[in-house]
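Hey Z.,

So I finally got round to the threonylcarbamoyladenylate thing we talked about over coffee. Here's the setup:
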Amino acid sequence: MRILDCGEVSLETAARALAEGKLVVIPTETVYGLGADAFNPEAVAKVFEAKARPSFDPLIVHLAELSDVERAASAFPPMARRLAESLWPGPLTLVLPKRPEVPGIVTSGLDTVALRLPSHPVARRIIALSGTLVAAPSANPFGYISPTSAMHVARTLGDKVDYIVDGGPSAVGVESTVLDLSRDGPPRLLRPGGLPLERLRELAGDIAVAGAPESKAGHAPLSSPGQLAGHYAPSASLRLYPAGGLAALSRDEIGEGCAAIVLDEAAASALARKGGFAAVFALSENGDLREAASRLFALLHELDTSEYGSIMAERVPEKGLGLAINDRLSRAARGSGARRGSHTCGKTP
Ligand code: TXA
Ligand code: MG
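And the result:
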């Protein structure tokens, strides 16, 4: 594996490697993606192998420009076109009917394909230079925390890829919002993500959220094949509490060596003053949900490589990027602790 910078020569090297069927990790504004030539089934098979990802979980195909849609989709319905024209490049993935040229391994045999035009200039440049489209899941081992820096990838998948292009920290920090427009009826939200649902509703009106109301349990039950509970999980155990819930716990209930995650600095200082936690972290200084999303995975990576026995986190408000943050936290909570057998502190919330 070689880490490449973002100079033009490096980007040409990365693009050539993709065209030759190699695995190249590319930076995007959401998270780093483990890229392969979307039209090369053997290269795509290596992506599944490197991540140990089950073959029923389809990949997103990344485009360099809007007109690339027709290379992979057999139809571009008016609503999808309107959303793409307003919101691309950006953290939105559209599921559309697929062209037969897209190999079945990319879409797990579905007759639809997920497409995204990323806004990170390095990603778009590499895809454009490669001359192909790039199938890329998040560049993490299956079920583990998604990477928002080249170092996160090097640490967890470094020996399984050919190149990692270092494009700096991912600005959005959570994966794209996935919207299904492949059928008649209102668009269906398959995964909350970096593009807020409110913004989609402004443009598209009605959006179907499976199992609505979406705020009921703090996350919506979704029907994308890859939306498994127990995703995004750190090795340490993680428990999720309602907003404000950590302040109500006694020292006994907290236990030894626990790190706490809360939304803002005010809540963090109050918890730290009260005592009981080995450390308290705020996702954002003033409770800004964009900032919180951009820091979430980096903080989980950091905590996962340190000595804390477990992590106790509070939910954030269910609006804007809060929907995606709560979704990732609750999946992390359901899948955590699996790899390290760490002790669990805190009572069940
Ligand atoms: O921000 C992102 O979306 C990042 C960056 C790298 O672009 N990629 C990413 O990929 O998060 P991944 O593979 O971790 O998540 C893709 C999600 C999965 O939940 C998968 O099931 C869903 O998209 N998906 C892909 N193709 C689909 C399809 N044809 N129908 C329904 N869901 C699909
Ligand atoms: Mg992923």
